[in-house]
Design a protein that fits this description.
Layout (H helix, E strand, L loop, with lengths): L1 E4 L2 H9 L6 E6 L5 H13 L2 E6 L19 H9 L6 E5 L25 H5 L3 H16 L3 E5 L3 H13 L5 E5 L19 H23 L14 H4 L4 E8 L12 E10 L2 E10 L5
Parallel strand pairs: 1-4, 2-3, 2-5, 3-4, 5-6
Antiparallel strand pairs: 7-8, 8-9
Bound molecules: adenosine monophosphate.
Length: 287
């Protein structure tokens, strides 16, 4: 059964009847693609009820970003969920107005220091405050046992885990792998802003991450004196790269000889479209 709610109060009323069920939450901004659908399928595999939220969250967009033009495609989104033919209950919460999530006079921000300050946090000031504030609200409304996020937004899933840990929220956060086009391009709602020519250009993002990952994995034991980020200097001279960094995948700090797993993260601008991608790579320093 798939049930759609546009009003948070009506959703909350219904939610009360589900007290004994295991509940999975998949927060999205809609315009669903197979990346989102993989999270929904995983939740439905592990939970009796899955709540999918579809909400283009104004708080996480900067003043010059694409909030107004962000694709809103609720009808097609529902059809895509239906086409999964899941035999468990799916509740879709698509608030009809931002006031459903942020009532008049709402003035609270959930803000995390440190982890939010580099990468997307540096290039999109306030973005992660918007993310943590909306996800906190959605956790409160949906009260899930487990919430599913994509590795595609690597920094985001770490930020959510940090919030859950710091505030001791009763939610388990699971991170699911990146779903890609056959070409390697990570699926994203923003890919549809790209022309055919720009899609070809965009492949550079994933290809560059793969190349760097190969370099790291082929050196079985890295020499601790190598400054890994110097590998990237020739690439990031190209101003389309907003960032390209190799960091510790646990805390997004510089890698140290203690790092077990690195993540290579990139943000590439193609025209006015900003695309992000990442690749986790095991590394081992010579001791
Ligand atoms: P969004 O609608 O862009 O806010 O994304 C909603 C959720 O889907 C987030 O947890 C994203 O990380 C996840 N997601 C987006 N794209 C992908 C992808 N290509 N593969 C897996 N998960 C994704």
């Amino acid at each position: 059964m798939i049930k759609l709610f546009n009003k948070v109060n009506e959703f909350k009323e219904y939610r009360k009847s589900l007290t004994s069920k295991s509940i999975g939450l998949v927060p999205t901004m809609g315009n669903l693609h197979s990346g989102h659908l993989s999270l929904i399928s995983q939740s439905a595999l592990e939970n009796e009820v899955t709540i999918v939220t579809i909400f283009v969250n104004p708080l996480q967009f900067g003043p010059n970003e694409d909030f107004d033009k962000y694709p809103r495609t609720l009808e097609q989104d529902i059809q895509k969920i239906e086409s999964l033919s899941i035999d468990r209950d799916i509740l879709i919460l698509s608030p009809s107005d931002p006031k459903e999530i942020y009532p008049d006079n709402f003035s609270t921000t959930i803000s995390i220091k440190g982890l939010t300050e580099n990468l997307c946090g540096a290039s999109r000031p306030g973005h992660f405050d918007g993310v943590t504030t909306v996800v906190y609200q959605l956790f409160k409304i949906a009260a899930p046992k487990t919430a599913y996020f994509g590795q595609k937004d690597f920094q985001q899933q770490l930020v959510i885990k940090k919030m859950v840990n710091d505030l001791d929220l009763p939610v388990e956060v699971k991170t699911m792998p990146i779903v890609r086009e056959e070409s390697g391009l990570a699926k994203s709602s923003r890919n549809q802003y790209l022309s055919d020519q720009q899609i070809l250009e965009a492949l550079e993002l994933n290809q560059t991450l793969n190349k760097i990952s190969d370099i790291l994995t082929n050196q079985t034991y890295l020499d601790a004196s190598i400054d890994l980020n110097s590998l990237l200097e020739p690439i990031i001279k190209d101003s389309r790269w907003e960032y390209l960094e190799i960091l510790d995948s646990e805390n997004l700090q510089e890698i140290t000889p203690k790092t077990n797993s690195a993540v290579i993260l990139g943000a590439l601008k193609i025209g006015s479209t900003r695309l992000i991608d990442n690749q986790v790579t095991k590394i081992q320093y010579a001791r």
